[in-house]
Model the fold of this input.
Amino acid sequence: MNNNVLDQVMQTYGIENWGQGYFSINRLGHLVVHPAKGDPRSADVFEIVQELMEKRKVSLPLLLRFPQILQTQLRRLCAAYEAAAKEFDYSGGHYPVFPMKVNPRREVVEEFLTEGRNQSVGVECGSKAELYAALSLDQAADSLLVCNGFKDEAFINMALMGVQAGKRVVVVVEKLNELKMIIRLAQKAGVAPLIGLRAKLYSKGTGKWASSGGESAKFGLTTSEILECIRLLSAAGLSDSLRLMHFHIGSQITDIKRVKNAIKEAARVYAKIRQMKLNVEYLDIGGGLGVDYDGSKTTFEGSINYSVEEFANNVVYMIKSVCDDEQVPYPHLVTESGRVMTAYHTLFITSIRDEIETFAEDIPTAAVDDDDPQVIFELKSLLEGISAKNFSEYYHDALDDKDELHTQFNLGLISLEDRAKGEVLFWEICAKALKFSQKAEADDAEFNELKRILAAKYLCNFSVFRSTPDSFAINQLFPIMPIHRLNEVPTEFATLVDVTCDSDGCIDNFVDVKDVKHVLELHKFADKPYHVAIFLTGAYQEVMGCYHNLFGMPNEAQIVINTDGKYHVTKLVSGSRISDMLSFARYDKQQAASGFKELVQQRVAGGQLTAERATQLVSDYEACVTGSTYLE
Done:
């Protein structure tokens, strides 16, 4: 592959900016995945997809899971805190817990617990279903099971079961009435969990989730409530159970300055409580450690202006400074950095199935006749005369002529054929004007908007609402690029539309180092297989996706890259079938079959269908339920 082409493609998609060393392009022009930055081992993603489709008959869309990336991210997180503790002479330990809400899939959670046994990796849960699953998992003996979120009696009783089963369960108090319930049920059971108090800090984060922190936050106890909790625990003889202070100022914090402010405030709260002769030994700093989705390394909401190592250094240094000032022991640090641990490990692969043209460029311009309206002659003249010197002026003239064309049509002065002829001329003028503006490298908002309007719409075989819900719900940016043909410079501008019947089922914002792009550079669609990957979807997307239009889960494959550099498919999980989605929507498969059969029999009775054809129709209908919900 030509190095100039490779450099241009790399720059176009920004792999080196957001990829963290996990992704590259090989000499065949295929996307490559590495288990760690600088690791010589790699797997050709296009080759993986081709094998799964051709040999294992797995259809797209497809979620590829790389557990080795989970391992690498966990090691990096733990190494960052170990290095910070060593640098600042910090004697407290580090107890990472994985928040199940980020990605509750068993394969993901168990990977962290297995890989992190020596780092005392635990889990965090925020619901009864998550807690039920967590109680069955094999954790390191000294790891924590942190229970966050609002709780009822059933939740607390389940947590007490975990205590009796030998787990180090920490029940975090979110509101005052919860503590009263915990005390009552613990006394009744004769066992007590470790208890944590979540403080409502004055400090707030930045980015999309800034409202998670601050005085109006959903979770957390005010200062007076914390003091009342301490009084209640003392009165119940459970002061020794208070072992953890917790805070969380929001996910995906973009600015390291906000982290410093929050850590300083939280450390001060911890220190003041320690000075009350209470044996609090853990400080849970929650999540917030972000992912650089666009690679810009800025405070933009899709980015972060710090590294994992800088985050850990600031946390450790700030807590040490406050504890030294207050003359209290250093706490063990509990982190809930789920996003950064999971985001990179999945690739969502979809295929382009068709191109929806913005205008009919394949329709030739009809010849201009002598009896055509004057506006048609003017548009034809603009098309023939537009050049690199006058493209801006001629484009503006064309806009005026288009308005005149529609005005005359609405007044009944021109025919439908004339309108069609005029529109084709106008869009051809727009296409030429855009090409001239790009050659002139004119960074003009007007022509950037024209680029967006003229961009093709590539129809992708997936549901935005199922597989990338945050792109719809909160305008989250995800890196997107083809997995092959990367030895060719992309020449087309496109947006992506999904197969749902919802106009919001599209992606028209794309990552860029300097700005947000509203079109994506792709190759010309030529009715051949063309596969595109959506990156960094491992956090939240799998669990937050919905079943809009009853499109279900995609097929899934787990890939491990061996020491010899060859990949191995360790697990295949079939995606949702039509029957699965019927059950989800509470349709009964047998009842549906009976209803269809009854309709067909009525047609037989009326003489519109033969009995033989009716039997075949019913058989074909019943066979449909085993099919995929996506295009095949």
User: Anything to note?
Assistant: The domain at 71-344 is CATH 3.20.20.10 (TIM Barrel).
